Amino acid sequence: MADLIPTSFKADLGKANISWLTDTFKIMLLTSTAAPAATWAKRSDVTNEVVGTGYTAGGATLITPVITASGTTQQYSAANPSWPNATITARYAAIYKARGGAATADELVAIYDFVTDKISTNGNFGLNFSANGCFTLG
User: Fold this and answer.
1) What whole-number distance in Å separates Cα of residue 137 and Cα of residue 128?
2) Do 44 and 61 touch, CB atoms closer than 8 A?
3) Are 24 and 58 in contact (CB under 8 A)?
4) Is the pLDDT of residue 138 over 90?
5) What is the pTM of this model?
6) In the chain, where are the structural domains located?
7) What are the angstrom distances between the C-alpha of 136 and each of 4, 33, 68, 83, 88?
8) For residues 137 and 10, what is the distance between their CA atoms, to the nearest angstrom?
9) CA torsion angle for 14, 16, 18, 20 (degrees, to 10)?
10) pLDDT digit string, tens, across residues 28-41
């Protein structure tokens, strides 16, 4: 599977349900048994979240969100998240808007496929977003 933007995210953005610069976003890690789909719309649709030492359910909060325009493309960026002293194995990551309540209210934004499992054994588990940011919309 390639990285994907859930179909619902574009509608949520257009309806102003999501603001990259002012809302709180989190990134959660998923195991290789997850089956991400563009039809996932809410955090409650996400299956097989990672469990392990140094990882808290729901994932990490993304900080320093930025939007950069480049021609007709918008690049959505944030600081690279990490989980120090973690013992976890993950294949996917999902960004969602964290509303602070039920998972059925948290809108999904992007899902990443690491292609193979990323493993950390009592060390830093970090993600490095590309030079194009967390995701781009063109």
Assistant:
1) 19
2) no
3) no
4) no
5) 0.92
6) 7-137
7) 11, 26, 9, 24, 28
8) 9
9) 90
10) 999 999 999 989 99
